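Whether sequence alone determines local backbone shape is best considered at the level of individual chains. In the encoding step, the backbone of a single protein was reduced to a row of integers, each denoting a local shape. For completeness, the protein is quoted in full, as a sequence line and a line of structure tokens.
***
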Amino acid sequence: MLVTLALFGIKAVSADSVEDRVNDLLGRMSLQEKLEYIGGIHAMSIRPIPRLGLPEIRMSDGPVGVRQDRPSTRYPAGVALAATWNPLLATREGTSMGRDCRARGIHILLAPGLNINRVPVCGRNFEYLSGEDPYLASQMVVPFVRGVQSQGVVATVKHFAANNQEFNRMDISADVGERALREIYLPAFEAAVKDGKAGAVMDAYNQVNGSFCTENRFLNLQVLKTEWGFSGVLMSDWGATHDTLAAATGGLDLEMPSGTYFNPAVLFSLLKKHQISESQIDDKVRRILRLIVRNGFLDRPQLDSDIPENDPTSAATALAIAQEGVVLLKNEGKLLPLDRKNIRRVAVFGPDARPGVPTGWGSSFVHPINSESLVDGLRELLGADVKIDYFDVGVGSFESAQFLHSAEDGKLEPGLKVEFFDNPILSGQPILTRVDSHIDFDWPAGRSLPGLSSDRFSARWTGMIRVSDSGPHAFRARSDDGIRVFLNGELIIDDWRDHAPRTVTAIRSLEAGKTYSLRIDYHNHGGGSALAQFGWASFAVPDTIRDYDLAIIGAGFDDGTEGEGTDRTFALPDLQDRLIQNVAEKNPRTVVILFSGGNVDMNSWLDKVPVLLHAWYPGQEGGRALATLLAGDINPSGKLPVTFERAFTDNPAAANYPSRDGGKTVNYAEGIFVGYRGYDHSAIEPRFPFGFGLSYTDFEYSDIQVASSAASAGEPIQVKCQIKNIGNRPGAEIAQLYVHPIDPVVERPVRELKGFTKVWLNPGEKKEVSLVLSQNAFQYFDSTTHQFKTEAGRYQLEVGSSSRDIRLTQPFELKQEMLHSDAAH
């Protein structure tokens, strides 16, 4: 058996030689070194042992880019990659991220994220390339993992398992039946391990069926290491270990970020009491050493200085994924693509249209090397002949908010007075006083101003605002750490705690012509860099936009309103619903572009706008990608990897979210009926179905053929059909193959995705596409025997453009003689 790596200068090595080298290293380690080795160091590393030539093994967060203390390529969110339905792009992104790691000397990438989208409000849905379907997730994760590891970097699949909400994620028990686990929540992990050969797996924070993932013997030992034969490293999420004995005997190999529980003092005690054995410790160490040897980390420097940190191939990959991942959901009257001959003025609104391109928050947050906003992308593509005007309505842009202060002569002048204090509590005499025209500061690590400590200071801005429109106004503050805002003496924003960068907003109704006093307090209490931003704006939409040829709204969430650690709202934040309605009322040619990890409540405005695109979080090249799609230079080809419900209560899991006992448990009572399976099961009409996405052209399906007569026991079954581009533009269609069981012996989904292919066609062009069904496409998990079973009998094979747009059907009988005698999964 050969372990093959497409590495620079590294030849394939035999598994035997890997094990020989591992055993040699293990045999020369002292017990003390072994016990130290299974606890992390420096927050993101496996400790070095210089006397044995073992280097420090450095890790980096993913999964939307290599997260470091300096900029890196920010790729589209994982769910955007899933929306491409293009495994070749998954390979390309994995390869590019692997190169980004090598350019920074990173050995282990903490990506990809694979948790199924169970509810649309999970704060980390945007990170996961899985969507709601295990087959789609499996087909996308394997090439991603292979791409990363082809560059001599280890991929880490996470979070194992059932981390499908952020609400109380540190403690809650996801109570999931074994059938749902096996059919919905585990298949993508299995594919990543067995087919992708992922080198590492990360245990989740939550419990599964009453046992924390880091000590869950069923998941870690029975499923992962025994059934799937995983020979890599199982690490904890950061701070997810709770008990030394339970984790040590429950399959965990490496505690991160440090050995709080896996340390010599505690482990020696357990060894002395014979509660754990040295052979168990050896297995954990051997897995880490195997990862190091297998990937060539002993034989070359991990830093490859020939790869630039600002890698053009990475930026090109990010652009391609953004262009294929955006989903066109509505295009009434074919308003898009833009008629460039007749477009002269475009009005742009919304918090996500500028500056930069939004993303979600958390460990996946990457400071991008470049970030071209939607406004910038349109200006660059359409040129000087088209006037692109941005209106700061209901946003409160940090760099353009207007302020006033009283000068020494009593006159009102622009800006705010600010006092800086060399302590975090606004105490004593200020060491610096000045006037700032706006509050938009992102101070790097180091001294921010002369006389200020870089990570322990505070500031107070005072002045006023003058209001020209009556009605609601938005006040928006973003900070790291604490910030509070007083309007006319009222505390309207109170976020006076130490925290990572985040955004807090307040809405207040103000009167035209009035002047309001304003005070903003800020403190930074650690972490090196410091962030303080504040802005305000009216929700009044100017009448002049009636004269614009088009209005575009960049709406949705961002790193202040969606991310790790908490679930978001289903409703758009900060009265964005009202903004959309107000714009559409004055300009019926309104395009809404949504930025978020999934669906949002559209009920108040969707019927008022002719065009809707979902951009997810499209990465640093998102503005450029969206401009090319709007202009028609690129034809939209993304399809939804998740179902979009009309109301949150329509979601199959809504009745069981987030908990019924105050956060102790979340009961997955919907079982296997997650996503489109649940909508079909309950006959609920979704807003937009799984697999849906429009194009600027149209496609015709015909001539389905099933080559069943040639299928022997266990052999794949080939399904063919013809697809023709019957429109006048080149485009790509994603043909989806579903299996629909007829009169099954157990309750099963109406249909399940079991194949897909993306085909590019010129106008008038027709191609034959071939979709292949493996035998496990007909399987279900039998909860009685705890085995997968393949049921002979009648099925309908369905080929369609979405789960609710089936174009071709073909009856099919799976005969007993076509089955393996052993129907193992």
Notes: The domain at 326-391+541-551+570-636 is CATH 3.40.50.1700 (Rossmann fold). The radius of gyration is 28 Å. Residues 336 and 630 are 6 Å apart (CA to CA).
